[in-house]
Every structure is written in C-alpha cells, then in structure tokens.
Amino acid sequence: MTCLPDIVVSTRDARVVVPDGARVSELVETVGNAATLTTGMHRSDPDLVGRGMDDSVVTPARAKLIDGYDAVRQAAFDAGATGVTISGAGPSVVAACYDTDRRAIASAMVDAFEERGVESRVYQTRIGDGATSY
Questions:
Q1: Which pLDDT band, with edges at 50, 70 and 90, does 129 fall under?
Q2: What is the DSSP letter of 44?
Q3: From CA 43, how far away is CA 49, in angstroms rounded?
Q4: Bond prior to 91 in cis (omega within 30° of 0)
Q5: Domains of the chain, residue spans
Q6: Are 9 and 89 in contact (CB under 8 A)?
C-alpha cells in the first residue's frame, strides 16, 4: 500500500540529497536487497518483498525531506508491515504487507503522519502480474 502525505518533495531536491558516494559494502547490500525484492515480487511473498525494500544509501537521505517519515515507518512495522520505504523520490511511503494487515497498517501510517500535523491518504495497491508480451 502507498501512503501519500500532503508534503511537496521536488524530484530535484530528492536528487540533491542523495550521497555522491557509498561504501562498497553498502552497494553490495543494496544490490542484494534489489534481488530479494525482485524474487519476492515474483513469488508474491510479502516477507521477501519487505526485506528487499531496505536501502542504506538513498532512503535515509531522502527521509529527511519527509516530515514524520521515521514515525510513519515505525508505526507501519508495529502494525504488521513486512517492509517500508520511500516510493521513488517521495513523498509517498510504500509498505509491503499481508492482505490481513492492510487496514491496520493504513490506519497506523495515516495516524503517524497526523500526529506530526501532516494530512495523508492511503492507496491500497497490490503487486501486479508484470509485463506481458502479445
């Protein structure tokens, strides 16, 4: 699911905060997580998708542009999310979860933003079937 806070984050600002460099270990971790995310989507496995959403390079930098991100992320995990990250350049926050936890996670994310004085709305999304050829 995706939670869209009423915050403006320009793509330019989101690009500027990305570090110019990263340690090799961080890059290895990021590539491994991307593979885990891909496998999780292929298998429709929310646990693998959640583990694959971790990013130690870009997300921490962009999180500073989203008021309440850390609280929203923690609230989503507390409510049952298997993974939480910033969607693209932001400010949307996306959470992976099992279908049974969707409503609780959606409420937790909206409530956490609200506690920071930020209005938001949730869109329930699902992993699609992917690209097909005709």
A1: low
A2: T
A3: 9
A4: yes
A5: 2-123
A6: yes
Q: How far is residue 75's CA from residue 77's CA, in Å, rounded to a whole number?
A: 5
Burial 47-80 (b: 16+ CB within 10 A, else e): ebbbbbbbbeebbeebbebbebbebbbebbbebb
pLDDT tens-digit map of 78-101: 999 999 999 989 999 999 999 888
Rounded CA separation 23/45 (Å): 29
| Torsion angle (degrees, nearest 10) of CA 79, 66, 1, 6 | 110
Query: What superfamily would CATH give domain 2-123?
Result: GHMP kinase, C-terminal domain (3.30.70.890)
Residue found under tokens 């500027």: 16
- Average predicted confidence (pLDDT) for the chain: 92
The answer to whether the beta carbons of residues 124 and 115 sit under 8 Å apart is no
Tens digit of each residue's pLDDT (9 = 90 or more) over 45-89: 999 999 999 999 999 999 999 999 999 999 999 999 999 999 989
For residue 72, report the phi and psi dihedrals to the nearest 5 degrees.
-65, -45
